[in-house]
Amino acid sequence: MHTPALAVIRTPLVAVYGTLKRGLRNHHWLDGADFLGGDRLTSATLYDLGPYPAAKLESSQGIEVEVFRVNARLLTGLDRLEDYRVRTPREGDYDRLVHATSFGPAWLYLYNRPVAGYPVIREGPWRPR
Question: Catalytic annotation on 82?
Answer without folding.
Answer: yes
